[in-house]
Write a structure and sequence with these properties.
With about 140 residues, the chain is α+β, with helices and mostly antiparallel strands. It has helices at about 5-20, 60-70, 95-105, 125; strands spanning about 35-40, 45-50, 75-85, 110-115, 120. It has a five-stranded mixed beta sheet with strand order 2-1-3-4-5. β1 and β2 (about 45-50) form a beta hairpin. The longest helix is centred in the first third of the chain and has 15 residues, at about 5-20. The radius of gyration is 14 Å and the shape is globular.
Amino acid sequence: MPSSLSPTARRRLEAAAKTASRHAYAPYSRFRVGAAVRAGSGKVYSGCNVENASYGLCNCAERTLVFTALAAGETEITHVAVYTPTPTATTPCGACRQVINEFGPYASVICVCDGSERIETTLDALLPGAFGPGNLL
């Protein structure tokens, strides 16, 4: 299980997610999502959604940030924050849940939005019975 975040660290993670949304490439949906992770090393990485004219090639913010953290040498994700420009909080999609599961099966997930609603849960609660590396043995 991930360690809990201090209120200051939690605010910083949420702010990093919101800031990342400003870099989203979303000319088609105009749905600018930002996400941030705290890796096992304690470092924070962020990512945004990247759309493509060939819709199937779009990449969600959560997957972008996981891949960014991995490219930097991280192997563990302990906390994920997701920001959506909506009045209610939105959780990661199924594909993103599966990618997060690979490196943070018990990661804390915080979802924030422009409204006051927030969702605080864990990846294993969002993706019960997940398929992961242990299933390949």
